[in-house]
Write a structure and sequence with these properties.
InterPro entries: Acyl_CoA_acyltransferase (IPR016181), GNAT_dom (IPR000182). This is GNAT family N-acetyltransferase. It comes from Pseudomonas qingdaonensis. Pfam families: Acetyltransf_7. It is a single chain. By secondary structure, this protein is of the alpha+beta class. The chain has one domain: Aminopeptidase. About 40% of the residues lie in helices and about 20% in strands. The chain contains six helices and seven strands, in the order βαααβββαβαββα. Helix 1 packs across helix 3 and helix 3 runs antiparallel to helix 6. The termini are far apart.
Amino acid sequence: MPDTTFSDQQLIDTFLPQILENEAKGVLQDLLAQPILAMQFLFFSEEATQKAIKHVAGIFDECYRSGHLKVAMSHENACLYGYALLFVHPDPNVPRYCHKIFVFPEFRGHGIGSQILSALIEDPRDTSLLCGYDLIDFYENAGLEQKGAFTAPGKQQGFALTQGMYADLVVMGTRGANVAAGVFMLNDDDVKALLAYA
């Protein structure tokens, strides 16, 4: 069974560019799926797309370098199988937010995602995540509790363009976690910066 690493800094740094680029591509796909943004992103040139990927990866990298983003990886023999991204608030009373658990397609179906999730749940620090209502049973069976519906910040807080990305989600968390966990979202200024590459 592969190892799940939280603390092997050299190994994490080796895979970090690949992880952040993969996440940036995922964010762009999520933005493309938003009706308000789809047409604007749909006709991006390859050059504009690469610039946007680099921009979003840079946001993640800045969070990582400042200590607000932590990475857990599933790996074996220098092969990366999957990872989790956790946003950590400076206040230790605020639960970590698991932004994503991702397993590369060729390694899916072998329990790697469940192994990463178990490592997160077994950690003494509280952890929360967002999921669709269809995944509540899965996460409850894994040991998380439903904490309530997620309410995304709105237009007044500068998140009008990404509202649809966070609709109909529920907060799941470990026993001590609460709804106050910070969630990573691109604000309107971030999205406008990406659109400027077109």
